[in-house]
Design goal:
Blueprint: E1 5-9, H1 13-26, E2 31-35, E3 47-50, H2 63-71, E4 76-79, E5 89-92, H3 97-102, E6 107-108, H4 119-123, E7 130-136, E8 139-145, E9 151-154, E10 159-160, E11 163-164, H5 167-182, H6 221-247, H7 266-277, H8 279-290, H9 307-331, H10 343-376, H11 380-398, H12 404-424, H13 428-448, H14 464-487
Parallel strand pairs: 1-2, 1-3, 3-4, 4-9
Antiparallel strand pairs: 5-6, 5-7, 7-8, 8-9, 10-11
Helix pairs in contact: 6-7, 6-8, 6-10, 7-10, 8-10, 9-13, 9-14, 10-11, 10-12, 10-13, 11-12, 12-13, 12-14
C-alpha cells in the first residue's frame, strides 16, 4: 500500500465518524481504515487513532495495539479512562507538548466517561516511559510515552462538532513523517531501518533538561554517561599532565603540594585552562556513548550551537557586563600595580584558551549534569530544580573556597546560567556570560596588576556586601540576556516557559 494510511481502532461508531471528519480536514490524502480492537497493527500503517471503549468495557482492550504501535514506532492517539463527576479543569504540565500548544494556564476541557485504562495505571509501574502532560485534580488527564515518535492518550475528546484538538496536528505530522521514512525501506519492513550506530532519535518537542530522556531511554544510561565521561576526562587530564611535566619539569617538585603551583605562570595557566576545556570532549563522549544521543543535543534543543545567538549574547554581555566589571574595579578602589613577569604570554594564553575553559565548565555543569539529572526525572520543572541545586552546589564547591560569601557569589552565577539554559534551550547564553566574566577579569588584572585576585582558591574570601552586589548584578545581566532571547525568538515569551526542540521526527543531527 502506498500513501498515508491511518487506522481507527475500536467500536465507537460516533467517535469514528468524528475522527474521519477530523482526518479529512487535516489529512485529506489519507486512507482511513476501521479495525476492531485487539489487533496487531500492520506494518503499512502510518498512524493509529484508538477510539474510546464504552464505560464498563475491559480496560485492557487497547493494550496489545498500544504495545505494538510503540514497538513499530507508529504515531498513536487514544483515550484515557475517566468517570462521571470529575472536574472540568485541566492543568497542563509546564514544558510539555500540550502546554506548548495551549499554554500552561488551567483549561476547561470536560472529561468523557469511558472504559479505557486510567492515566495513573500507566504511570504507576517503576521505570515506566509514560509521563503526564496534564492533570485533572490529582489524576493524569493527558499522558505521553517515550517509546515512539508521537504517543498521546487523553481523557477528553480529540474531535467534536465544535472543533479539533491541537494535538491532532502533531499526530498527523508524525504520521506523514512515518510515511516518508517507510517509503525509503523495503516493502513489508517493520518501519524505517536504522544503523545500530545511529543515535537515538528525537520524539517531539523536548526542553533542554529532557534532551536525554527520549526514545530508548533506560535508567542506567545516565550512569553509563557518567562513567564514560569521567574516563574520558581522566585520560585527557593525565595526557595533559604528562605534557606539562615535559614542558615544565619543575612541576614535579610541587606535585605533592598543589598550593605551591604558581597559577599565573604561563605553563600552569595554559595547562589549567586546557584541563577544564577537556570537559567538553568528556561531555560529548558521555552524550554520544552513554546516552546514545546526537552530540548536538548537548549544546541546544536545535541539535547544534546557535552561532548567531551566541555572537549576539557575547556582544551584549561584553558591552554591559564587561563595562560593569571594569567600573566595579575602579569603584572598589582598584589601583594599577606591577604586571606579571610574562604578561604578554598570559594575554595570548587568556585570549586563546580562557573561552574554552569557561565553555568547558558550562558544558559540564550546565550541560551534562543537568541533562543527566533530567534523564531520571519525568517532570521538567522538577528536573530543572534538582539539576540547578546540584549544579550550583558542585560548581561553587569545585572552586575550593568554603567562604559562605564566595559560595553565594558562585552559586548565583550557576543559578543564572541554569535558568538561561532552561529558557533559551541551550548553553550559548550561559557560555557567553561565563566567558566574558573570565576574559574581562583576567585581561584587566593582567594589564593593571593583581592577577592573583582573579582566581578563587581555598583562601579566597569575600563580604556580604560584595557578594550581594555581585549576585544582584548577575541576576540583572541574566534578565537582560533573557530579554534579548525573547526579542530574537530564542526564548518563549511566556514567563518561565522553556524553549523546546523542533518537532522533527527524523533525526538529522550530527
Amino acid at each position: 500500500m502506498t500513501g498515508l494510511s491511518i487506522a481507527l481502532v475500536g467500536e465507537d461508531q460516533a467517535g469514528a465518524a468524528l475522527a474521519r471528519r477530523a482526518l479529512a480536514a487535516l489529512a485529506p490524502e489519507a486512507r482511513i481504515s476501521h479495525l476492531p480492537p485487539g489487533l496487531t497493527p500492520a506494518t503499512d500503517l502510518d498512524g493509529i487513532w484508538l477510539l474510546a471503549p464504552p464505560p464498563g468495557s475491559d480496560p485492557t482492550v487497547h493494550d496489545l495495539t498500544i504495545s505494538w504501535a510503540m514497538h513499530l514506532c507508529l504515531p498513536l492517539v487514544g483515550p484515557l479512562g475517566s468517570g462521571e463527576g470529575e472536574s472540568d479543569t485541566l492543568r497542563p504540565v509546564p514544558g510539555g507538548r500540550l502546554a506548548g500548544s495551549l499554554g500552561d494556564a488551567p483549561l476547561q476541557l470536560p472529561a468523557t466517561a469511558n472504559g479505557a485504562r486510567r492515566g495513573a495505571e500507566y504511570l504507576a509501574p517503576a521505570g515506566t516511559l509514560w509521563s503526564a502532560e496534564a492533570h485533572r485534580g490529582a489524576e493524569p488527564a493527558v499522558i505521553t510515552a517515550g517509546g515512539a515518535p508521537f504517543v498521546m492518550l487523553v481523557d477528553h475528546p480529540l474531535a467534536t462538532d465544535a472543533g479539533l484538538h491541537p494535538l491532532l496536528t502533531g499526530f498527523v505530522a508524525a504520521a506523514r513523517a512515518h510515511l516518508a521514512a517507510r517509503a525509503t525501506t523495503r516493502p513489508g519492513a517493520p518501519g524505517p531501518t536504522r544503523s545500530p550506530f545511529a543515535p537515538l532519535p528525537d520524539e517531539g518537542p523536548l526542553s533542554y533538561v529532557h534532551q536525554m530522556r527520549t526514545s530508548g531511554y533506560r535508567w542506567w544510561r545516565p550512569l553509563l554517561a557518567l562513567a564514560t565521561g569521567t574516563a574520558t576526562f581522566v585520560v585527557l587530564a593525565l595526557t595533559l599532565t604528562l605534557v606539562w611535566a615535559v614542558l615544565d619539569p619543575s612541576m614535579l617538585d610541587s606535585a605533592a603540594d598543589p598550593a605551591g603551583v604558581d597559577l599565573i605562570a604561563p605553563i600552569p595557566m595554559l595547562m589549567g585552562n586546557l584541563m577544564l576545556a577537556a570537559l567538553i570532549p568528556a561531555a560529548i563522549v558521555a552524550t554520544r556513548v552513554g546516552h546514545w544521543r546526537p552530540v548536538g543535543a548537548l549544546f541546544s534543543v536545535t541539535g547544534r550551537i546557535r552561532w548567531r545567538w551566541l555572537g549576539r549574547a557575547m556582544l551584549v554581555t561584553t558591552l554591559i557586563w564587561g563595562s560593569w566589571l571594569v567600573a566595579m574595579w575602579f569603584i572598589d578602589g582598584g589601583e594599577a600595580g606591577e604586571r606579571p613577569q610574562h604578561w604578554p604570554w598570559l594575554l595570548v594564553i587568556t585570549l586563546l584558551t580562557t573561552p574554552l575553559q569557561s565553555a568547558g565548565e558550562e558544558v559540564a555543569f550546565r550541560g551534562a549534569l543537568m541533562q543527566g539529572v533530567g534523564a531520571w526525572i519525568r517532570r521538567p520543572v522538577l528536573a530543572l530544580v534538582v539539576g540547578t541545586v546540584l549544579s550550583a552546589a558542585l560548581f561553587a564547591l569545585a572552586h575550593t573556597s568554603l567562604d559562605p560569601w564566595i559560595l553565594l557569589d558562585l552559586g548565583t552565577l550557576a543559578v543564572a546560567a541554569c535558568y538561561l539554559t532552561w529558557r533559551t534551550g541551550g548553553l550559548e547564553a550561559a557560555i557567553a556570560l561565563h566567558v566574558v566574566n573570565n576574559l574581562v577579569l583576567i585581561l584587566m588584572l593582567t594589564l593593571l596588576g593583581g592577577l592573583e585576585g582573579a582566581y578563587v582558591t581555598e583562601g579566597t574570601t569575600s563580604t556580604f556586601g560584595a557578594a550581594g552586589i555581585s549576585a544582584v548584578s548577575t541576576l540583572v545581566m541574566m534578565a537582560i540576556l533573557l530579554w534579548q532571547a525573547r526579542r530574537v525568538g530564542v526564548a518563549p515569551n511566556r514567563l518561565g516557559a522553556p524553549a523546546t526542540s523542533p518537532p522533527e521526527l527524523e533525526d538529522a543531527r550530527p
